[in-house]
Write a structure and sequence with these properties.
The chain is of the alpha+beta class. Among the domains are: about 150 residues, Beta Polymerase, domain 2 (2-Layer Sandwich); about 60 residues, Up-down Bundle (Methane Monooxygenase Hydroxylase, Chain G, domain 1), CATH 1.20.58. Helices cover about 55% and strands about 15% of the residues. It is built from eleven helices and seven strands. A hairpin with a 4-residue loop joins strand 1 and strand 2. Helix 1 runs parallel beside helix 4, helix 9 packs antiparallel against helix 10 and helix 10 runs antiparallel to helix 11. The radius of gyration is 35 Å and the shape is rod-shaped. About 30% of the residues are buried.
Length: about 375
């Protein structure tokens, strides 16, 4: 039986270099820069090798999206910060692995920290995503190996299903956050099947392994809750409050994502209640099993009580010459009669117990 170890929250690093070092999980893999440039008619995608190329991209395209994957290359991260005039503290927040979802305005840009959800086969994991929204540009920072939650947005851009050139970078930001929120739905939907299977197991086959899996489900739900509650506050702030570089059209998009987040939280709370009920079901099933075992042992002990009396009574050694001696001691078939008495006593008690309903099949 394997138990998952809970990771303790790491202390906040003091500088950018320490943040990148704590975030780096795939040594040797370079930082990848994906550029998407949009205007009113065309869209172009490219993987660029140097951060300095972003200067020309900003001049050429009305709206650009730079997706930064991997935090291993400290020089590249710093160069991106210089191109887009990102402060040291803001850049540190972007690459901090345990950053809590939040929205913060840094002068000429807005930092939006969020977390995507995925199932790695053993537990539910939430991965950090940082978004910098500025005038005509959008930057996203994410780690290597955590999956790309923005594939759907890329597909829409490639097939011309969004008007980034006209609607601006804030519209793209709304699409990305909507993709982050929608990524929670398939993760939560799988909980329904897991909870149903656990309920059946808790009733039919209560075991320590079942209790461990119930505990794991509760931990996964708590992980999602810790990510979704602050995300709700982020979307509420972007959709209801006046935020720099966020227009009315994008604000409506954020409000729609906020509604999706509330739907997710309602579903999450329902699953948490079911998870708590499963633990109670497990304990009740375990107690029922214990009661069934005690009932069987009690019936067996009760059946053997008269048999023990009979064998003990006839097992006493008396003088066979006395007229007051025990009966059947001199009888030729005395042992058969005693055995028949014990058999009849056993059958009579079993029939009595059965008719009283004490021997019904237990579950």
């Amino acid at each position: 039986m394997s138990r998952r170890k809970h990771r303790r929250r790491r202390p906040r690093p003091r500088d950018l270099a320490a943040s990148i070092a704590s975030a780096a999980r795939h040594e040797g893999r370079p930082t990848v820069l994906r550029l998407v440039g949009c205007d009113g008619q065309t869209t172009q995608e490219a993987i660029i090798g140097r951060a300095e190329e972003l200067v020309e991209a900003r001049r050429r395209w009305p709206v650009i999206w730079v997706d930064v994957e991997g935090f291993e290359d400290l020089a590249t991260i710093r160069a991106i910060g210089e191109v887009f005039e990102i402060g040291e503290f803001a850049l540190e927040d972007a690459v901090t692995p345990d950053e809590r979802p939040k929205v913060e305005v840094f002068g000429h840009q807005v930092l939006i920290a969020a977390r995507t959800a995925r199932d790695d086969g053993e537990a539910i994991v939430t991965d950090p995503v940082a978004i910098f929204l500025g005038d005509r540009y959008l930057l996203t920072f994410r780690e290597h190996g955590v999956g790309d939650a923005f594939d759907g947005v890329r597909h829409r851009i490639r097939h011309g299903r969004t008007r980034l050139g006209q609607l601006g970078a804030d519209h793209l930001c709304g699409l990305l956050l909507d993709a982050v929120v929608d990524g929670y739905f398939p993760v939560l939907e799988r909980f329904g099947d897991r909870l149903e299977a656990l309920e059946e197991e808790a009733i039919e086959r209560p075991s320590r392994e079942a209790l461990t899996r119930i505990h794991d489900v509760r931990n996964d739900l708590m992980t999602l809750r810790r990510a979704l509650w602050p995300t709700r506050d982020v979307l509420h702030a972007l959709g209801r409050e006046a935020t720099a570089f966020v227009g009315d059209h994008a604000r409506q998009h954020f409000r729609d994502s906020y509604d999706h987040t509330m739907e997710l939280l309602d579903l999450l709370e329902s699953y948490r209640e079911i998870g708590s009920d499963l633990r109670d079901i497990y304990l009740a099933s375990l107690n029922n099993r214990m009661n069934d075992v005690m009932k069987v042992l009690t019936v067996i002990a009760t059946v053997f009580m008269p048999l023990t009396f009979i064998t003990g009574y006839y097992g006493m050694n008396f003088d066979t010459s006395s007229p007051w001696n025990m009966p059947l001691l001199n009888f030729r078939y005395g042992s058969l009669v005693a055995g028949a008495m014990m058999a009849a006593t056993t059958i009579g008690m079993v029939v009595f117990f059965w008719r009283r309903g004490w021997l019904k099949r237990w579950h």
